[in-house]
């Protein structure tokens, strides 16, 4: 199956190029680079996290052991039960679901407005949003907390979700993507008398799969590992998300290796979501709809 | 372009004006005190979810509170203090009404108006007269009381008995032969390195913890770090002879005797890790933190011994630290009253009574269940000897370690206690951190030059006093 | 002449409702997003500006400070160090952090065997929680013969142990490597999406014309991802100027402030010293620098019209 993929390959290295030996060697070299990447990206963190199954004393021994002397897999069940991790998983899932929806809708609409609709004065909107990227304040959290307290939105997921709808970087990504879509499609639709909304839902959305997937994955990742806002806003212990719980573990009686096992748990859902969505990256934009 | 900039400016000014109003969502309440009114308090000292035994103790407290004071509702909000989470909470008024924080915090919390004045309550409930003055003073400013000390500790020398035994540094009774001066410390560390291959000693150098510990060592080498000159102006002695000698000593430990671990940029968490996993023989740490290596790193509770901090040419001082109950500044008088009643119920009271004894006993049982050493106690906060003895009796019942391993420390500590320097300590520790890091990572660093720089950097803070 | 006059007349047409809807109606789409920005970003930003000109007691404004706060920060002993360090961070980030995702995404896109697996692997570091990654680097980078990298170097190659983070001139590049390790995955994904949208017929046509691998890269791939790369460049600069997490947890700003960044300095002002006005000043100085850089960037690096 793989060789047939090679036979019909297009791209920088095409099936025709592969007839030459030098290109074939080059292809093998690229493959080797990918293997190197696997070693760099996958091995070290997996080593550290699986090491959590060693005894805590061995985990920290100097020099660290590659072949473990101890093996304590029961810790996995122990940590799960003692921390009631399932509940925290659910809380985190609630969080990322809302954050992804918020990010896609709000940032998407903003990007769409700036790229396609371009109402009068849109350049100011663009500049102001771009500018918010450049104005870092570590103290942002304080006025936001004060405002949230004033309107009584503490202990609710809502402010956390909405916060992800104001992401300048994602607005830029959406804008850039929409700008790369063929203008002729939109113009044709306009001439045919479509409203902006219809253009958005009938034409733009179906073509937006790649960017939607990218934004989804980015948002899942950052909202899953978000710590400070959930910690401050979700005061009820029952609402703690996974990352907040792990931070909490660091401050209680839990031994360090239990925290590492919890980190193992933390990686699984985002990884699964990514694997599921990355399938859609291979579906490119339908440029074929514009001929000539 | 110009028009664009103008519009940007206009936007900015508009944003500024819109936010001009004060951000204080937590202004001081002006309620009258009514001890029987219904009141709700957020309790930051509640046991954590993970602490099954502690939760049970708090269930008991909850029942006692409900029985005696049915008008008080408690909301558990267990909170571990850290500056970057506390400050947003304090400003937005969402901090717990009662919480614990280390002794290094009250000064700046009070200055920044984040905690409530509880002077009258402290007088009424007997804390003002019943507590050790030095402890109480940590939470006082201008004669007003803002916090109730829970327990104190002092810097002490932790000894890893396993490594000492391996190095042959124990006497006939199995007690450690611990160093009493800094010279002896260097020698002992060398022996450990030679006989066991593990580092003999480790010290912190970052996150301002390096400077914190260093200040104690500098005292022992004779340094006066902050003092007033004849005109009353505050000067610093960061580059005095004593301090330079102390930093020189640090350098020798690293480069000449080679007894420190290879990683020179470490903080206390790493120290507990190294100590708890048997990678270092001795560390200097707070005398109440021996539970850390045990619970976090799986150390055997019988492998810990505590000795007094070694003496130097300038004396033998032990830096005083501790934990203090403090109260969020937006608490109403009723809430504060409720918090003090809670303190009584959990055993924080100068009176000796059955409830108090029972809660201490429960607290100890919690620790036993978590395999934490019981026996060595925090430094005493009570000045009332009857109270002290009552508590001691309970401890004697449950001690689960060999107290002889801790005795040397307790014999000496009360004579050597010294509180933190008065002003801008965090900035002082920052400046010292840099000097320490430079000397530990650069073989040719000059301690005097480094400390001259630190002194210069720090003086501008003292000039503001 | 006459036409111009007529055009001028056209422009002064009346403002009807339908015209208003046409010209400004698009803003409706963006309104919710703008409200969120106002609440979460602009209002705190504006407040930060106000703070930078105020005298503070904790978080309460007690007076107007004029430019005093700015003078204090600019003269602060650590400010210059932080500024120079941040420029160094930017420099290393452009060399290492910018090129890695481009190269990785292009390579992955070309390899058909196990492509989905490689995509996952490239993204995996982004999934690793910060705490776990930190531990990993500690294991790898411990100086002396105890760290993993050092012991491998020693036993396999016979090289003396390296000091890594203890050496002040190495800290910044190493922190950039750590940051790139974690962050490159997301950027790679963005580039992959961009690479996927290059019309494959272009490549086919080029191959038929006899173009080699490097020509195809030069004339098809690079123009194809140019707009994305252009956006990513300025994004990278903006983001690296705000680096905070890595210096804070990996080195604490050390050794001796060698890895102190501007935003870490701001953080220290805010949460260690409770001096929010100085923290805001640092933030504003950083944003002014970034504004200037962006303006220069927009002037000289033009977008490409396909």
Walk me through the structure:
The complex is a heterotrimer of chains A (292), B (465) and C (306). With 292 residues, chain A is mostly helical. Chain A has 16 helices and no strands. Chain A has helices at 2-7, 21-41, 43-50, 56-59, 74-83, 85-117, 122-134, 141-151, 158-163, 168-179, 183-191, 196-207, 209-224, 228-233, 242-250, 256-278. In chain A, helix 5 crosses helix 16 (256-278) and helix 6 packs across helix 10. The radius of gyration of chain A is 24 Å and the shape is flat. Chain B folds into two domains: 39-152 and 321-403, 3-Layer(aba) Sandwich (D-Maltodextrin-Binding Protein, domain 2), CATH 3.40.190.10; 154-320 and 407-462, D-Maltodextrin-Binding Protein, domain 2 (3-Layer(aba) Sandwich). In chain B, the strands form four sheets. In chain B, strands 3, 6, 7, 10, 11, 12 and 13 form a seven-stranded mixed sheet that branches. In chain B, strands 1-2 form a two-stranded parallel ribbon. In chain B, helix 10 (209-220) crosses helix 11 (241-256) and helix 18 runs antiparallel to helix 19 (447-462). Chain B is globular, with a radius of gyration of 24 Å. In chain B, 51% of the residues are buried. Helix content of chain C is 75%, strand content 3%. Chain C contains 15 helices and two strands. Chain C is flat, with a radius of gyration of 25 Å.
């Amino acid at each position: 199956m793989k060789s047939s993929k090679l036979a019909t390959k297009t791209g920088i290295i095409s099936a025709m190029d592969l007839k030459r030996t030098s290109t074939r060697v080059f292809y093998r070299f690229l493959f080797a680079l990918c293997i190197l990447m696997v070693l760099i990206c996958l091995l070290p963190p997996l080593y550290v996290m699986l090491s959590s199954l060693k005894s805590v004393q061995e985990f920290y021994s100097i020099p660290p052991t590659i072949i473990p002397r101890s093996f304590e897999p029961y810790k996995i069940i122990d940590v799960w039960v003692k921390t009631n991790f399932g509940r925290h998983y659910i809380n985190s899932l609630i969080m990322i679901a809302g954050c992804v929806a918020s990010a896609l809708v709000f940032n998407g609409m903003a990007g769409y407005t700036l790229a396609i609709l371009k109402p009068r004065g849109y350049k100011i909107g663009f500049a102001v949003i771009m500018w918010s990227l450049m104005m870092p304040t570590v103290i942002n959290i304080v006025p936001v907390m004060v405002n949230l307290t004033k309107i009584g939105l503490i202990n609710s997921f809502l402010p956390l979700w909405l916060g992800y709808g104001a992401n300048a970087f994602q607005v830029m990504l959406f804008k850039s993507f929409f700008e790369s879509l063929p203008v002729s499609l939109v113009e044709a639709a306009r001439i045919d008398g479509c409203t902006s909304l219809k253009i958005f839902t009938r034409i733009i959305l179906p073509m937006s799969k790649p960017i939607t997937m990218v934004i989804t994955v980015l948002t899942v990742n950052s909202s899953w590992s978000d710590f400070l806002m959930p910690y401050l806003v979700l005061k009820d212990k029952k609402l703690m998300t996974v990352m907040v719980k792990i931070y909490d573990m660091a401050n209680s009686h839990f031994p360090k290796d239990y925290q590492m096992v919890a980190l193992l748990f933390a990686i699984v859902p985002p990884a699964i979501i990514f694997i599921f969505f990355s399938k859609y990256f291979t579906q490119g934009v339908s440029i074929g709809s514009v001929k000539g | 372009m110009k028009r664009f900039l103008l519009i940007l400016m206009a936007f900015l000014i508009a944003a500024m004006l819109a936010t001009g109003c004060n951000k204080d969502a937590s202004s001081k309440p002006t309620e009258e005190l009514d001890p029987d009114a219904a009141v709700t308090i957020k309790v930051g000292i509640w046991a954590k979810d993970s602490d099954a035994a502690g939760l049970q103790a708090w269930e008991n407290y909850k029942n006692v509170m409900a029985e005696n004071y049915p008008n008080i509702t408690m909301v558990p909000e267990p909170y571990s203090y850290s500056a970057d989470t506390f400050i947003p909470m304090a400003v937005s008024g969402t901090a717990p009404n009662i919480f614990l924080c280390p002794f290094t915090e009250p000064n700046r919390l009070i200055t920044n108006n984040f905690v409530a004045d509880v002077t009258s309550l402290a007088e009424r409930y007997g804390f003002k007269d019943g507590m050790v003055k030095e402890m109480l003073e940590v939470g006082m400013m201008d004669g007003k009381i803002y916090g109730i000390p829970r327990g104190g500790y002092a810097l002490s020398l932790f000894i890893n008995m396993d490594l000492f035994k391996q190095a042959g540094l124990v006497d006939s009774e199995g007690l450690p032969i611990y160093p009493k001066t800094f010279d002896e410390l260097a020698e002992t560390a060398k022996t450990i390195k030679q006989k066991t291959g593990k580092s003999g000693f480790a010290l912190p150098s970052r996150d301002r913890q390096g400077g914190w510990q260093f200040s104690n060592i500098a005292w022992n080498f004779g340094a006066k770090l902050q003092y007033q000159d004849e005109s009353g102006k505050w000067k610093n002695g960061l580059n005095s002879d004593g301090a330079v000698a102390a930093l020189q000593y640090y350098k020798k430990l690293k480069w000449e005797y080679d007894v420190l671990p290879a990683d020179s940029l470490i903080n206390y968490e790493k120290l507990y890790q190294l100590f708890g996993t048997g990678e270092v023989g001795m560390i200097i740490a707070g005398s109440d933190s021996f539970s850390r290596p045990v619970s976090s790193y799986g150390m055997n509770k019988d492998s810990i011994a505590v000795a007094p901090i070694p003496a130097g040419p300038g004396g033998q001082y032990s830096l005083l630290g501790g934990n203090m109950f403090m109260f969020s500044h937006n608490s109403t008088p009723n809430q504060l009253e409720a918090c003090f009643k809670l303190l009584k119920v959990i055993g924080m009271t100068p009176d000796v009574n059955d409830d108090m004894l029972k809660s201490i006993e429960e607290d100890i049982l919690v620790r036993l269940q978590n395999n934490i050493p019981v026996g060595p106690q925090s430094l005493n906060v009570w000045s009332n000897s009857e109270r002290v003895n009552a508590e001691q009796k309970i401890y004697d019942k449950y001690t689960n370690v060999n107290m002889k391993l801790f005795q040397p420390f307790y014999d000496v500590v009360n004579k050597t206690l010294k509180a933190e320097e008065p002003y801008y300590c965090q900035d002082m520790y920052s400046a010292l951190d840099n000097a320490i890091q430079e000397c530990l990572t650069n073989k040719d660093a000059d301690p005097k030059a480094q400390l001259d720089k630190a002194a210069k950097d720090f003086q501008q803070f003292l000039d503001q006093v | 002449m006459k036409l111009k006059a007529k055009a001028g007349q056209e422009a002064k047409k009346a403002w009807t409702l339908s015209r208003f809807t046409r010209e400004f109606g698009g803003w409706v789409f963006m309104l919710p997003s703008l409200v969120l920005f106002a609440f979460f970003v602009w209002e705190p930003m504006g407040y930060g500006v106000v703070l930078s000109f105020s005298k503070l007691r904790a978080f309460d404004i007690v007076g107007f400070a004029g430019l005093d706060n700015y003078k204090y920060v600019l003269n602060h002993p650590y400010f210059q160090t932080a500024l120079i360090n941040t420029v160094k961070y930017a420099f290393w980030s452009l060399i290492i952090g910018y090129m890695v995702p481009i190269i990785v995404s292009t390579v992955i896109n070309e390899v058909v065997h196990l492509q989905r697996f490689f995509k996952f692997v490239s993204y995996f570091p982004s999934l690793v929680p910060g705490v776990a990654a930190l531990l990993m680097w500690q294991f790898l980078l411990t100086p002396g013969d105890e760290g993993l990298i050092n012991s491998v170097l020693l036993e396999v190659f016979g090289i003396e142990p390296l000091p890594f983070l203890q050496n002040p001139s190495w800290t910044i590049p190493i922190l950039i490597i750590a940051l790139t390790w974690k962050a490159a995955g997301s950027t790679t994904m963005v580039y992959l999406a961009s690479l996927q949208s290059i019309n494959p017929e272009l490549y086919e046509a080029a191959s038929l014309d006899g173009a080699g691998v490097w020509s195809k890269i030069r004339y098809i791939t690079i123009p194809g991802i140019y707009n994305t790369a252009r956006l990513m460049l300025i994004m990278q600069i903006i983001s690296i100027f705000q680096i905070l997490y890595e210096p804070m947890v990996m080195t604490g700003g050390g050794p001796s402030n060698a890895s102190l960044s501007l935003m870490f300095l701001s953080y220290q002002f805010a949460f260690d010293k409770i001096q929010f006005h100085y923290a805001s000043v640092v933030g504003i100085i950083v944003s002014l620098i970034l504004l200037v850089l962006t303006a220069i960037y927009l002037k000289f690096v033009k977008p490409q019209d396909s």
